[in-house]
Amino acid sequence: MSLFTDDVVTFKSVLRLAYNFLAGREYLKKKKFKDRRKLIAVALPFSDLVYSAGGVPVFPIRMEKFNINAYLAALNSATNLFGWDLTTKLLTFVRQFDVLKILDNVLDDVIHTINHKYNELYELGIENGISSDFCYGITSLTGMFISKGKNLDANINYTIRCSAWNKYSESIKKYVPKEIWVDIPPRDMGNAVELLSENIKAAIGELEEVTGNLVTDNSLNKQFRIGNQVKRFYKTILYEFSASDFYPCNPATFAEILALLGLSFQDYNSNAQRYLENISYLVKEMRKRIEKSIGMDVKGMPRIMITPVFGGWEPETHEILYRLGARTIYADWELLGMLEEINVSKNSDPIEEYAKYLLNAMMKGVGCDQEALTDSYIKTAKDLNVDGLVFNQVFGCHSISNCYSLLRKKIRKKLEIPTTVINFNKIGENVEQVKTRLGALVEMFR
Amino acid sequence: MKSLELLSEYSNYLEEQKLEGKKIIAFMSHDSIPEELIDAAGFIPLRLIFAGNDDLMNASHDYLPPSTCSFAQSCIGYFARKPNLYKFLELVDYILLSNHCVSDICVSEIISDNFNVERLNLYVPYTRNESAIKYYKIELENLRKELENIIGHEIPDQKIKESIDKYNLFKKKLAEIEKLEISGSQKLEIFQKAILFGPKILNEIEKLIQKNREITSNDSQTESNNKKVIFTGCSIFLGDYLMDLIEESGGEIVFFNTWIGHNYISQIYSDKILNSTDDPIDLFLYRFKTNIYGDHSVPDSLDNEISYLETFINEYQKENGEKLAVINHVIKFCDHFSLFQSTLKERLQNKGIQVLNLERDYSRANRGQLSTRIEAFMEMI
Question: I need a labelling partner for A222 at 20 to 30 A (CA). Which of A241, A407, A442, B184 fits?
Fold first, then answer.
């Protein structure tokens, strides 16, 4: 819950990010029917090639109609009339008379709306034969394709170490007109970079066929530059602001922003340039607020990293931690190596550099084995200098959830910070356990 | 009872081999491990093909969450508990980690880290395109080097080739077992033994085939009233009671479309292919490339499987006048077969083929429920 609503309604960049995420349906319709652009589904942060090919990447939940649309439509009209600057000023003014407290729940509503939709799509996946033994992420993603796959022009899949993910990717081909694959070699051995480059070239060829556009070194580098800048801003938020003793907003709101970034980073809300502008503005706004002492003194509040959350987590978590007097950090993409930059220097080969980026993420972040994966957890926790770590063990996840036993040992040996595990199956199902476990964890800081 | 005898015999065999100075490389069973390379290097390849139970699964929970594939849980359980009949697992020198599925990676790592077993690695790409084949070659050469480092000398191509020939001949003989008029449980016992012992039991297999042919030619054919089915999905591992349940319920498995069964046996090289190259690695690559039914690969594994089952069922019907039904065995939390089970059923049923999706773990409590489901299916056929 965004307890400091003043922060949110004046947080223009956050409102924009939230709006662009939730209003995806209308935006994508326009792109598809008016601009004749091709919609290509992505999941996990793998949208760069699609942008380079002039396609519109879409994390498929964004094709859904969200319940919050009425409010957002009004917001959209206002911004069309007055622009974002005036609209946010207007919102600040209106808030004084907001007897229904609609604005109090802006960001909270956004996160809850997304999560409500996630649950809905999870159920759709189950109704269509996905075993409830599969993880929340895969089941809800399948639901997304069942629901809206027919509106897509293609889907791009990247093979990763998770066998359920690879099989899920195969399984959704019945819902989309075309599947494009990038097979990432499991390890960086021999000429793996060269082989992956070949696979990337093949995928580019297929993207060109779908979009009718030519992918050039320039179009790739242009996109990688945008991506690199986004990643830099993302890292600033993670490393600079999240470590600060003064937050530009309430820590629960800050966690919600991180959650929103985690979700929207997958497809840059279908418009990379706009996303870059938003995240750049977000950083500026945060900095300005801190300078002006707008926000909250969080000194003494332990910083807890909760991970992994990209496959589903209990969104009440950061609120519970806030009430217990702690701050929440969501940093999955950093941990998985997805926030590393792609080399765009003058004489570099963009395809090869992209291959190196992917292989690096597979070797160090996603991890070809548990040792590498848990090392990545330790490194990120160290780099972010967090005070505690909560491992979100997702039911049915056989790739990451399996590493907790090893991770716990490593944390004890190498980090010596408090840690606990919370179990997740579906949003809203396990809130009591989360409260108990987090309560016990925070006690350790007192 | 037979599995007890087999395990005891296998235990003695491994002990003998160890006394002779041989080392054992264990791995979770699947089709991209070049067992011929392991054999040529002088190691004993030990496929972990042992079914689990409650105790074994529980023993894994210090390392893995319970929402892990029951077979993977049990593999850890065997190393954690070392039950009497499986004492031979103490003889294992190396575990070969592969990525057939992610549980294969996790389990192999856990066994290596916690039970004093050294680790080797062989990662397999997910597609079978040209780059994937080249990558698989890198992994094979790396494994070969790792093995050579252990034994302290090179493994000559000729030796690998001989081993490939040996296994090839062995698989050709096993393919004859598929066609014998013996019960499904008998076939399964032979397949399980074959996968454990390898070509060492070639003579035994030949004798069995000969003996069976004599019996068949002397006896008049008797029609069985049992319901004939294809068994697909996850393999039936050694010590599992599932086969008993199927036969007690009046079912007769005429074809094992599983790794312990046709998927293994069918990986045979023709003479033309065998003679086409002097480089044994090329033969492994050929096998990888043509293994379109392996469940590890994407993106067409399900389509290929469905098409194969349909063809087999149609041909069987033409030859025997009977339409086969399908039992799709899914070990709980198996990434590969669990996700596809509803689609497989739907698509086969649309072609008029009856399918039972049998999802289960290794707990004893499941036995009654499984039995009821199988009986109901047999009645329905």
Answer: A241
